[in-house]
User: What shape does this take?
Amino acid sequence: MPSKSRLGQNFLRDQQAIRRIVAALGDCSDRTVVEIGPGMGAITRELAERAGRVLGLELDHELAARLSSELSRGAAEQGTNPATSNVEIETVDVLSFDFVAASALAGQKLLVAGNLPYYITSPILSKLAESAEALDRAVLMVQSEVADRVTAQPGSRAFGLLSVTVQLHGPVEQLFTLLPSAFTPPPEVHSTVFRWRFAPRFKALEVDREPFLNFLRQVFALKRKTLANNLRAAGLDSAIALQALSNAGIDSKARAESVSIESLAALWKVLKAEGATPANEVAPTIV
Assistant: This one.
């Protein structure tokens, strides 16, 4: 079946990579794994061999129907009742999927796997972050540039809002990188698989999730500007911004990309204590 470029479909065909992705989830023999975008079912079939239950979320109606049919036919050929198969393909947009409800239904936190479409990678990562309390760990394939940003550390040019937002919801690590030839059709970029262990840090940092995330969107709004300038752009008085930076132990000329998550939390708490947190709401995006 030809891919549909509008859906960002590049199907993984490297069998070794498929096995490594599933293995990176760890023992999932009694777990529910949600697969984002199963497509032709390459990863799905490997998951079916190892997981207790697999729920595939496929936006493409044609692909979902075809994969469901193939899995049912395969179960029948093996003498298994398709109705008792451990794989279910649901035609749904992952951005509207209720991970919390699925976790409650499963009676456990969910595992997640997927080869994420490049054009909506950031919205999907944001969706997973919002659902972090219902998730255990995820093994995801993304464009290598995105993986570099997700795992970047302060002081790196790649460190930004995406890095902070993801890492606030748990530690991440890159696992391996694949050449375009591992896919059909080959994309124009390299792809990297990373693992995300969900462990939200808001309580430990003593920050309120939504106000703090809004604050981060403000201080990273103008990437090449200093923290002080971004705070001023968000409506904060210059003298208050500079004093808050000093109280938080942050250089007045520092950019957000050079400041640790802990120091950003300290700055937010200083501003909150003084009743001076920027009030302007910023659209919730982590691009």
About this structure: Residues 61-77 form the longest helix (17 residues).
